[in-house]
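User: Can you predict the 3D structure for this chain?
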Amino acid sequence: MSPQIKNKTWQAWADEIADDEIIIDRHIINNEADGNCWKFTMSQELASDTKLEHVMAFASQVKQSRKNWLIEHGAQSMVMYWWHDEMSGQLCFSLVSLCHGKLPFGCKVILRHTKSLEDIVNEWFNSPYHPVRPNGRAGFLYGCHSSRLGRSQLFSSSVL
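Assistant: Here is the predicted structure, written as structure tokens:
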């Protein structure tokens, strides 16, 4: 069972994602990556009311709801990956079929070499582009957390 989210906005986003269909295209990875992509930007008000545990509980619920959707629809395993896009100030995630053997931006999927989701969220919180810290330096995509999701046991990095 996923932890309870103690923030109304993050809970509403988790509920919206739980109701969303997952796009599966085993032949064209970018159709999946684009169709399953979610991006989150916080207002200053939301940022001042958001804690690490809110985002981690949100991510846990999202991961579980996406896994449940795949199982309910008899779908094959997918890789869920999270990243912090520092240039846009967004926390993002998407899913692609495991059969692709890669993420859509050309990286080989080596689950043991990914950053933890907590590291990605902390990068997002500590970014100079975060709404609470409006002044900062130019930045780039720092890292990615991926997980395998599906009928199999979850890996330490997430496969659905």
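The chain has one domain: 8-159. The two ends are 15 Å apart (CA to CA).
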